[in-house]
């Protein structure tokens, strides 16, 4: 077996794993989800999901990854196959490969907007667009949806190309010289930028005490942190909270496992996994929660902030934030920090999304690192065209729904059943605690074995009853978008079939070789 790459240092590994988890989800998706789901009402199911789904799955995925790595596998098909010798297991693993790949395609495009907008901040390009309509129109003309400030999609296309190039350049340099190096630079910078922004936000007070004395940062914090028990009966909030935990921790997509596969057999995973989850949560609920919502509450009031969040996933980050920057002294500088922070958060996650596929091509097909990276870079470049040009018709939303929301839960369900019930919880527990630098509380043995799978099952059943049919039939989707949404499904199906076929070919080849021996 060829010698596998390794992480250079422990701190590098933790930063890379934290970089994998900390992403656009922490700063853009979290505030929107919290605001849409009633702030303080959201946080209770959120923490429940963190302890019953997020942290247990974090440990499981590190264990699955390190175990698979022992057999030379950096992607889920091989990992599942190592844990469960049944023909189907590698195909269930293929689902993980599929999810990370699809997410990479649309995620890098959003990531590229942040790079663009950091440039537009420092050059004050959007200064003058001071109303919601004007700023939304700026964003939409950048995205090629309408013609206004930008007359063509070229600037967006340019930043997309730069972003893809940077991603694949880093991936080309490999685990320790590429991904680890990036994390060592990007993560501390991200912390610094976020802290500067939080300080700026908390010192804002009440910007307009005469006309709006109750519009202030405190009201933003109160909105998130005053627990609201009245809405706990609403299943939607529980599902949204679980969805956010999945998205933000990057569980259920194969990227944490891929990173963990570069560990040595006796390297700790208990403490490292917990550190990754804690870092992510610190960034999300301390830093992420202290920027977009409180600042919007101070300038627009809580009601409007909730309206903004309901208006779409990017309204808070790309529309309301730029309006606020224009009201602040040195706003161009804070805008630059905000969007560059998002870019760093994004790129340390997106490189992780390509890693399973790169490992797969190298390990299961014997393709060289350079060629595998180039091949995937090229394929992502082709697929992203659809996202860029059909953005207006919900292409991105469709992919985000199936891969970034539904897919994560489905894959995690298969994974935990294989890990806790087929591989077996006793062996699984031994894996999690092997080489551990902390004592993992025994209660997690039972949580992983019973509660997490049941929780996931419950989410899936709930989905089947409530959402499956209307979502599948695209109820509520604008009629003119339906063909494009089907197009997105077609593209995903194509990617899925391609991955399944590759898994089949690789295993057929391997079985033949084994028989020949
Ligand atoms: N965890 C990263 C983020 O929060 C990547 C998520 S992809 C489902 O953005």
UniProtKB/TrEMBL annotation:
Chief place where the protein resides: membrane
Positions of transmembrane segments: 7-28, 40-60, 91-110, 149-170, 182-202, 237-262, 282-302, 336-361, 373-395, 401-423, 443-466, 486-507
Superkingdom classification of source: Bacteria
Record's subcellular location: Membrane
Keywords: Membrane, Transmembrane, Transmembrane helix, Transport
Membrane topology: Multi-pass membrane protein
Name of the protein in question: Na+-dependent transporter, SNF family
Organism annotation: Candidatus Kryptonium thompsonii
GO cellular component, one term: membrane
Pfam families in UniProt: SNF (PF00209)
Keyword Iron appears in the UniProt entry: no
């Amino acid at each position: 077996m060829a010698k596998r790459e390794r992480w250079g240092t422990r701190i590098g590994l933790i930063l890379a794993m934290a970089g994998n988890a900390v992403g656009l989800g922490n700063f853009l998706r979290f505030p929107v989800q919290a605001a849409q789901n009633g702030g303080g009402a959201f946080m209770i199911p959120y923490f429940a999901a963190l302890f019953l789904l997020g942290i247990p799955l974090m440990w499981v995925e590190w264990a699955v990854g390190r175990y698979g790595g022992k057999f030379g596998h950096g992607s889920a098909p091989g990992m599942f196959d190592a844990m469960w010798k049944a023909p189907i297991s590698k195909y269930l693993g293929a689902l993980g490969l599929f999810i990370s790949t699809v997410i990479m395609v649309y995620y890098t495009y959003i990531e590229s907007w942040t790079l663009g907008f950091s440039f537009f901040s420092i050059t004050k390009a959007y200064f003058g667009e001071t109303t919601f309509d004007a700023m939304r129109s700026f964003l939409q003309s950048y995205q090629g949806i309408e013609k206004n400030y930008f007359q063509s999609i070229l600037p967006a296309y340019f930043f997309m190309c730069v972003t893809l190039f940077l991603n694949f350049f880093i991936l080309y340099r490999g685990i320790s010289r590429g991904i680890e190096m990036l994390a060592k630079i990007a993560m501390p910078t991200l912390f610094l930028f976020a802290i500067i922004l939080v300080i700026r936000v908390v010192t804002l007070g009440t910007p307009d005490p005469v006309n709006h004395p109750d519009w202030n940062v405190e009201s933003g914090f109160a909105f998130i942190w005053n627990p609201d028990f009245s809405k706990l009966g609403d299943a939607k909030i529980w599902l949204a909270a679980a969805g956010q935990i999945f998205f933000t921790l990057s569980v259920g997509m194969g990227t944490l496992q891929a990173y963990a596969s570069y560990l040595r057999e006796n390297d700790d995973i208990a403490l490292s996994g917990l550190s990754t989850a804690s870092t992510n949560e610190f960034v999300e609920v301390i830093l992420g929660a202290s920027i977009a919502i409180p600042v919007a509450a101070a300038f627009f009031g809580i009601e409007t902030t909730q309206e903004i969040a309901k208006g779409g996933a990017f309204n808070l980050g790309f529309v309301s934030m730029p309006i606020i920057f224009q009201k602040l002294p040195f706003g161009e500088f804070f805008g630059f920090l905000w969007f560059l922070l998002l870019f760093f958060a994004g790129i340390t996650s997106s490189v992780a999304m390509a890693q399973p596929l790169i490992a797969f091509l190298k390990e299961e097909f014997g393709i060289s690192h350079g060629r595998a990276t180039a091949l995937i870079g090229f394929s992502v470049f082709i697929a992203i065209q659809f996202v860029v040009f059909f953005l207006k018709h919900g292409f991105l939303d469709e992919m985000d729904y199936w891969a970034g929301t539904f897919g994560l839960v489905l894959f995690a369900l298969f994974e935990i059943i294989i890990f806790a019930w087929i591989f077996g919880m006793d062996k699984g527990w031994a894996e999690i605690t092997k080489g551990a630098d902390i004592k993992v509380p025994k209660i997690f043995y039972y949580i992983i074995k019973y509660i997490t799978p049941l929780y996931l099952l419950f989410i899936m059943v709930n989905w089947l009853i409530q959402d499956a049919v209307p979502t599948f039939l695209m109820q509520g989707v604008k009629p003119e978008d339906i063909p494009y949404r089907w197009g997105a499904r077609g593209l995903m199906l194509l990617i899925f079939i391609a991955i399944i076929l590759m898994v089949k070919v690789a295993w057929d080849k391997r079985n033949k070789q084994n028989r020949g021996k």
